[in-house]
Amino acid sequence: MAIAYKRARFLKPGEEDLIVSEEIDESTEGSVVLNITGIRHIDQQRQSLPTFKWRSHFLYLLETSRVVVVTGETGSGKSTQLPQYIYEAGWVKGTSKYIAVTQPRRVAAITLATRVAEEKDCKLGNEVGYLIRFEDCFKPGRTHILYMTDGMLIQEMTRDPLLQNYRVIILDEVHERSLQVDLLLGLVKKI
After folding, report:
1. Considering 26, 39, 79, 170, which has the largest number of Cβ atoms within 10 A of its Cβ?
2. Where does the Helicase ATP-binding domain lie (predicted)?
3. Sign of the torsion formed by the C-alpha atoms of 148, 151, 152 and 154
4. Is residue 177 part of a domain?
């Protein structure tokens, strides 16, 4: 049985009608059917992000410089793709070291780790994990991309001031100035 379904949509200037009707087939009785023909494969999604065209240049700069500053629009892949490019380039291959990616908020650290684990088709906590206050999801020796809050990296530095367990440190969202970010910038500069 098909029923009329109403969905919201954006209005164009001069339009008054807020609702558009669509026909939806309800014959599946409680199950949800997703038509995935329009959804691109994850690799195609990754390659369509703006960071992809700069991948080689980014890795070259990382190889030749102690500090690389990356700027880009929201959604361009800085937080999700750059750590994967570093991993795929072999920066932590054969080691138990981490690529650390700091985030100002707990939710961002968890969400990004979950997304990258999905993109890498691995279980969260294996190759990709997170570390936040009172909670962690990673396996030492197996996890290589580790998302964490700014405060957790500061805490790590109290135990290991040179961050010897880390191969690359990405300080993300540094434009959101805070005491922790400013402290991290100063501490990491001394390594």
Report:
1. 79
2. 59-191
3. positive
4. yes
Share of residues in the chain with pLDDT > 70 (%): 79
Average of per-residue pLDDT across 110-135:
96
The total domain count for the chain is 1
pTM: 0.76
For residue 95, being part of any structural domain is answered with yes
Residue 149 resides in a domain = yes
The full DSSP string for the chain is -EEEEEEE-PPPTT----EEEEEEE-TTTT------TTSPPHHHHHHHSGGGGGHHHHHHHHHH-S-------TTSSHHHHHHHHHHHTTTTTTS--EEEEEESSHHHHHHHHHHHHHHTT--TTSSEEEEETTEEE--TTT--EEEEEHHHHHHHHHH-TT-TTEEEEEE--TTS--HHHHHHHHHHHT-
Task: Give the residue numbers spanning the domain of 94.
Answer: 77-189
Look up residue 78 and give its two tokens: 């800085």
Each residue of 69-111: pLDDT tens digit? 998 888 899 999 999 999 999 999 999 999 999 999 999 999 9
